[in-house]
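Re: the 484-residue chain
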Amino acid sequence: MYKKTNRIQPSLEDFLLPFGGKLSANNRWVKEAKLIPWDLVEDLYAESFKNEREDGRPPIPARIAYGALYIKEREKLTDERCVEHIAENAYMQYFLGLKEFRQEPLFDASMMTHFRKRFSPEAMQKINEELYRRAHPPKADDANEPGDGGNSNKGALIIDATVAPADIRYPTDLELLNECREQTEAIIESLWGTSLRYGHKTGYSRKKARKEYLKVAKQRKPRKKLIRQTIGKQLIYVEKNLARLKTLLNENPNPKLSPKKEQRLETIEQLVKQQRQMFDQRSHVCENRIVSLRQPHVRPIVRGKTSASVEFGQKLELVIVDGFTFLEKQSFNNFNEGVTLIAAIERYRGRFGAYPEAILADKLYRNRENLRYCKEQGIRLSGPRLGRPKAADIQADREQAYQDSCQRNMVEGRIGVSKRRYGLSRIMAYLPETALNEAAMQIFVMNVAHLIRRFLRLFYQCNSEDLFLRYCCSFSFSWFFSKP
């Protein structure tokens, strides 16, 4: 059973250091600790525990769990290196809510996977929205609901989609089948000691099968005919192994297969069915195609980019409002961005109480349904007007299109920054729920960095600290630069 801890932030003077002294209030971890909504994190973390028993080992506090995930993505560390950094840095331990410096590790590195499982994509979205709400509280004059006779639309919505590639090698049919053959051979070896031990373990020569694969894999540009012949042979070998495994499992009432091997065997069977279907139909397309045995949930996503026409990972739809990034949709399956625009508009209305004045998006969002819906709600969707343009409107349309393209560059820049700086270009977590959490956490870290830059810009633009503090009162963060 999880018991909520004290949510009061410890002061800098109360934090005990082993060699004396005190922490600096200008440190970045001290500043960022004030931004994160720890109370909401505590509530969402407590909801993830279903066991109501009070005995047993107490769970790790929510602030340590979520803060460790934040530190990992903020510094682009591995799980092991993140635990080491926390044990060596007093500011990181203050960020995690500790009251004194501890030299021993706070937890084992394997706990990071459990931390990611505790925060679902829905929970991460709530934390991200709460961060925006606290930084932009509603004003009295902004409470303008639709249908009140005034201007019911306000703000601009910038939307685009991208792909966060998974940590897998580029898949080919031949390599996947060779990996299936090797793993089925290993499973046969593990079951052979408990079987009746008659006949050969495999219905083919392993050395010959290996040589046939290497004959094609070592060539720089093998011919398509040779590749197809080798794929057909490897496919037959794997099918023979699966038939042999079925016999061994039927003979042994209590097979010694771990849950991980059973799941891997199910993945191999499904992959072989897909490969047999594509081989017989002479095609490279099938539904829910598996491209990795270790991550069977990953799907190929056609993007048409110059650097990579096909990417393998999760597809993300990002929305930017007032410089803040919202993660609208995450999915390992490919989806058409055009059919998600109406849902994004309704979520915008739920967040801000009004429809946007303009939507800046690419051509994929300009379908008939979206254009009709935007016209009904009085929303301007970026792009050329329908029908033949009038001569008097040509220059105005060109100027508007130029302004929209300049503003829409913000989402392209955020996608580039998230991939270069915050690790969205390669998701290292390989479980589906942990991979979704890692991508959402990287977006959250980018938003916290955006808020810090925003407050610093306001600080340097103001003539005095008093004027700055009066200005920040509207953002509920007047205490962000306050002295301890």
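The domain at 150-168+299-446 is CATH 3.30.420.10 (Nucleotidyltransferase; domain 5).
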